[in-house]
Amino acid sequence: MALQVVGVSLEMIAAVRPLVQRIRRHDRSLADQLVRAASRVALTRAAIRVAVAWGYFVPWEAEGAEELVRRVLAMLWKLTR
Fold first, then answer.
1. Rounded distance, CA 79 to CA 51, Å?
2. Are 56 and 24 in contact (CB under 8 A)?
3. How confident is the model at residue 1 (pLDDT cuts 50, 70, 90)?
4. Are 23 and 34 a contacting pair, CB within 8 Å?
5. The whole model's pTM is what?
6. Residue 2: pLDDT over 60
7. Per-domain residue ranges of the chain
């Protein structure tokens, strides 16, 4: 499921990209929020793993956050079914 979420989130980013450009003409703040929100969907789990890889904290310190991300993804999955 995680790989599907990443793939679909990247597809979503590609789909909203032209919309962001149009929104920005009218509301720069809204366009920026959309870009950040769409990016976060793809990056949430990866950002935690990247931080571990950089040594910002050890893997066990990220376990709680990883579990919450898994729970949120599961909830979102269930909402779509």
1. 29
2. no
3. low
4. yes
5. 0.63
6. no
7. 2-79
For 9, 19, 32, the CA distances from 63, given in Å and listed in that order, are 23, 36, 30
Query: Residue 80 has which token pair?
Result: 């779509």
**Span 10-38, pLDDT tens digits:** 888 899 999 999 999 999 999 999 999 88
Type of residue found at 43? L
Long-range contacts, stretch 72-76, CB < 8 angstroms, 24+ apart: 73/1, 73/2, 73/5, 73/45, 74/1, 76/5
For residues 17 and 31, the answer to whether their CB atoms sit within 8 Å is: no
Q: Letter for the amino acid at 24?
A: R
Q: Where do the H-state alpha helices sit in the chain?
A: 2-26, 28-54, 59-79
Calculate mean pLDDT across residues 33-47.
Answer: 84
Are 35 and 13 in contact by the 8 Å Cβ rule? The answer is no
